[in-house]
Queue: 4 jobs
Job 1
Amino acid sequence: MDASEIARLKALMEWEGRRTAPPRGFPTLLDMPAARYTSPEYYALEKERVFRRSWLFAGHIDEVPEPGCWMRWHNAGDPIVIVHGMDGVVRAFYNTCRHRGAPVVTEDFGKSSRLMCGYHNWTYKTDGTLVGVPERQDFPPDFDMSCRGLIPVRCERLGNVIFVNFDDEAMPLKEWMGPLWDEWAEFAFDRIRLAARHSFDLQCNWKVAMEANMEVYHVPFIHPETVAPLVDPKRNLNTMYPNGHARMLAPPPRTTDREHVRAIDSPPGWKQIESVGELGRTCTQSYTLFPNWVSPLSNYFVPPLVFWPTSLTTTRLELVTMALDWGDEPAPDLWTVPDDTQPGGRQMSPIILEDTQFGEAIQKSMESAAFKSVPLSYQEARIYSFHQSLDRMIGVDDVPEELRVEQVIGEEWTWPNEPRDALLSEEAEASRDAAE
Ligand code: FES
Ligand SMILES: [Fe+2]
């Protein structure tokens, strides 16, 4: 990010801190229908139209580091195997044998130059080609092995991070990410290693869990000791991007004691990503990568929280920490701590416990007659924009009217458009006039 962009964003954060109402021209966010969190019909649309069409975080190259390495992955439902091919290319396939559907690999991780189904030993190359069928002569003479390879799933990488997409027609990952592709360049995705990856089951709809990480309105109330010293919610600047992505950017409160920030934010022994610029070093910035990844990005970590719907009312939360190689130090793990009740076990860190504490109760409330609709403030606009994107991904006309959100946040409030720039200049002009 260049110096003028940094200066512009700093000025906008200060402007957010001074404003006394939502910015002029910002649309009124209409109540969102409550049933978006409880309707089986809406959930089915999300699964089919959003999770089958979006780029999804699948893993890190450290999990399949060498040619021949493979890993199972089933966070999106279907059984998938991610394979580091003998030719160096990382691919994803349904872990489904083309003979009678047995799983081709049955361990979570492994390494082999061929993938062999254990049922009748059909054998595939690491590029998915079927190359071995025992008793081949007993199949019809025109049995064409070349069209019975493993069924591929789109698989692309952002540096070391592996994404998959079930939609053969989907745009490439780079295009999907849009401006984030370049904005994230300073976080060294091609050098960060996988330090920790854990998952926990939550008793609430995936959006309930995720939205706790998509606004800073809650920070002073549920994170008074943990996040509040690092983030000034008043000076938070939200930016919406195309395809449903978004960013929050906020400086620490003016009252924060620098030593306190350093103690939380600059842990000894962890290597800094030198290429990270001023905002990543001095502010908290967190990105939503639509649909289910939220990650603060800083000069120490790329630590995504990834939210997987496992049913209408349950979620698997993945807590991932990626960082530069930590050498002989213990691997950093931003989101989990040792669980004293089980040897080697991990539990969610205090911040994550704070964020997830209400999930189950919220879900229960949402299923009661008392939960009518969701009013959102300007500060919570990232949540509204996320819901607009869900509906757009599903196809607005295919969302039953009683479940739909109105598409009120338009392109004029989406990157690269920034109406707040004009409001800021207007303010500067007015104060110049007043001084004259
Ligand atoms: S099901 Fe895989 S070889 Fe028969
Ligand atoms: Fe939070």
Job 2
Amino acid sequence: MLQFLSLFNTIFNDAPQPWQLGFQDSAAPGFTGIVTLHNTIGFYLIVICFSVFWALFSIIYYYNTKKNPIAHKYLTHGTVVELVWTITPALILIAIAFPSFRLLYLMDEVISPTLTIKAVGHQWYWSYELSDFVTDSGDAIDFDSYMLPESDLELGQFRLLDVDNKLIVPVDCHIRLIVTGADVIHSYAVPSLGLKLDAVPGRLNQVSFLVERTGTFYGQCSEICGVWHGFMPIAIEAVSTQDFLLWVDSAS
Ligand SMILES: [Cu+2]
């Protein structure tokens, strides 16, 4: 029974599943907003598809010369119907634009972050810098994060997704992520956290996110960057603030 009930509490999707079509489970408010917007627009999409195809097929079915050789010969213009099919789409676009811009500006906002992390894309791995903390020698904490080769994988680790050094972040903290590239353009993308930022050499891109629960969240480089583009995954582990500080202590 316990095992059966635990089915409803289990988070299945912190890594992609084979042949998955839907979203991964959200772990950040930003991604929850993206899923909600997707569902809102999906509603309009279904309504529009049904009404357009219904109109199209009924016109083809009823108004053809085989069925009515003479009756519709002079039916060439209708002002009312023209007005309806011009104004209605405009109203629908406005209805879609409002929630879209709302989410866009909400996600763009960076208000007093607790922590700043810089992620740098290289051919072909990611490196991280945490400048809020210094090591004993006075430098910022920085480390490289390489994909684990298949031969090094342990039971429970994901092929092409797990890395040697995960990025550790605290839960329930506003984190500022600054992304750049060291050589060519990469893209820092973690679906369950709603992150996707281009890593452009000579440019700093910024985003803010908050992880709502502990766990490990996987992503991949999302801008084709060379032969091993598919082998530079991202793994972020969200832990309690206490565990995060312990990790910082061990890293510095
Ligand atoms: Cu890439």
Job 3
Amino acid sequence: MAATEHCWDCLIIGGGPAGLTAATYLCRFHRSCLVVDAGESRARWIPESNNCPGFPDGIRGPRLLQRLHQHAGSYGVTLEKGLVDRVSVDGGEFVVCAGARSWRARTVILASGIKDQLPPYAWVEQAIAQRALRLCAVCDAYEATDLRIGVYGRLDKLISHARFLRTFSAQVLLLPTDAGDEQDRQAAAAAGLPILPPGELEFDGRRIAHRARAGARTVLDAVYACLGSNTAAELVTAIGARVSEAGEIEVDRYQMTAVDGVYAIGDIVSGLNQIAVAFGHAAVAACHLHAGLPRTERDLIQPA
Ligand SMILES: Cc1cc2nc3c(=O)[nH]c(=O)nc-3n(C[C@H](O)[C@H](O)[C@H](O)COP(=O)(O)OP(=O)(O)OC[C@H]3O[C@@H](n4cnc5c(N)ncnc54)[C@H](O)[C@@H]3O)c2cc1C
């Protein structure tokens, strides 16, 4: 690397609610900040969020992202489209690569979110847009109050999820992708959760129905997929960050990983995948990161 190569104060991997909020804070601290983003925020799928603070009339995910971009952009953040595939350490700085491109940074924030595992149907994105298929009960189960709700996934993963959904509706049905074991079937029965027989999901453009192999068809107002997710945590575990048994990156109370100067924020860290949580993580990480970088008081760089 050339000795003169630019070194960013912070490189943020991921431009969703977490990464863009961190960028806004850092730019407002007069820090140089680059966001490298693959452009697949989970928020792009939100048909309308009704629990995002400050939007009592709801806001569509793409519109929220647009406003977050606009906000960070107004303070001069630099955004590069790209998929980061490697982070390494060189001479006390971080080197972040996306294919043939690379950047140097004093600190790194990993804000790359999660990638949902989805049911294996071509109509999945259309069903999400129609709110027929949902991915987050905390986000939008209120809007399914007293409706008929299905929960789809491995039986052992469904029961606690279904019990939470009972907060919103008495009609919660399990749509397991496997037979599960006797203990899980007993737990479902004890909780009063009906299990639909093996079958397929169908989507008619408005609602999802479960069709049992034996032929019975059950129409559902909303189906929650509960299939797990993947992350890009290996980008930072490769340089020493640690991951919990649950697969979440371990961070301290300032969102810093086990690697000094490397932070993780948003869905990639928390089991509570919420925009408000992403915002909070971003604010905490950005303030701590700023305090740890070389001082930039105005009188040091602009003597009177
Ligand atoms: C259908 C749906 C409805 C939802 N509704 C709500 C709601 O109503 N209220 C609420 O609070 N939350 C809701 N959520 C959750 C919310 O979208 C997430 O909590 C939020 O988007 C998390 O922000 P994030 O920045 O951590 O991750 P993301 O928004 O997922 O952004 C991560 C970004 O990093 C990028 N990226 C990933 N890997 C790399 C890489 N290697 N290099 C570069 N970039 C990378 C991704 O492409 C993406 O742009 C919903 C989610 C879904 C799917």
Job 4
Amino acid sequence: MENPFKFGTIVDGSYFTDRVEEQEKVKQVISSENHLILISPRRFGKTSLVQKVMKSLERPVFQLNLQLVTDTEDFAAHLLKLVLRKYPMERLKHLISHFRFIPTISTNPMTDGIELSFQPSVDSFVLLEDVFILIDKIGERGEKPVVVLDEFQEIKALDKNLDKKMRSILQLHSHVNYVFLGSQESMMEEIFEKKKSPFYHFGYLMKLDKIPYDDFLVFLKKGFCELGEKTEVENVSREILAFTRCHPYYTQQLAFQVWTLWLQKGYMDTLVADASLLLTQVHDMDYERLWATFNRTDKKVLIGLNMNLGSPTSLSFLRNQGIESSSTAFSSLKRLSKLGYVIKNDVYEMDDPFFAQWIMKHR
Ligand SMILES: Nc1ncnc2c1ncn2[C@@H]1O[C@H](COP(=O)(O)OP(=O)(O)OP(=O)(O)O)[C@@H](O)[C@H]1O
Ligand SMILES: [Mg+2]
């Protein structure tokens, strides 16, 4: 028997659940004249969702993770490589007549990969602009391409004026749909929601939520169904979701561990508790190191969140945790959210349930 749960990488097929409405929404937006901006905390399933939709399309898709890109020139090179991989040079020849630079293209027979280099003196924004124009031309002549830029918040770190330049280039193109994904919510909001930002209101903003409880429950029960009795499967699945609060990644991680334990040792009432303790222990050193980086207010806020004391800026929370004022608590929450340790859905909560357990165990 193979473990039916998977975490850490993109999921599809039997590892992927729900997101029916979201898939529909993504399709709808990119079938229109609009661009899509998809935001969520880390590991909620943005890349998996978008990949799933892209696979179902019969349009050219160019997908690039900006975390892998080092600067503007590298960005242009990566993008051009994606295009070259899809279209033979012969077909592109008449489409690249606008190129203000001549790239040197070679193939590596060992890896079957394409190598690209540019003359050193070319302005890197020009390189990027020409590649984007090429993609728009491809759309003009045939199927409209979709360009997916994952971890888009990275453009802030790539080059100082890249956002401005990109916006000025992209706004001219009407034969491409762009999809921007990002996990640093505050940075993505700054890029797409701040009035002063070049990308202000550039497309349809979609926020990805956790997977709904009932859907995740069905998914978990299906994964465990061959291991035990119906009531055992039901209890274990519910216990997992109570612990992970439906966080997509942590739910799959814990379910994976529970499944392994269950298979090894048979059913026990403590399966979920044992598995979660095991996973918390694995990260003991990381959590200890991390904990040491927080200031005193951060620590008080995190502990309070795990004690379910209500809103961290409420009087009772502040009093109980000995925090001077709601503004102190608020700036701590902002800091912790920016770093991804705290997420806000209906309420503030810790992102990582294992870290939350570690904190409570050590208090
Ligand atoms: N639809 C889904 N059904 C089940 N599990 C999912 C689903 N989407 C995501 N997951 C779980 O979450 C993990 C992370 O998914 P993915 O990498 O797509 O998220 P992400 O938001 O792109 O993450 P990151 O912020 O790291 O880029 C997956 O490995 C899987 O365990
Ligand atoms: Mg991703």
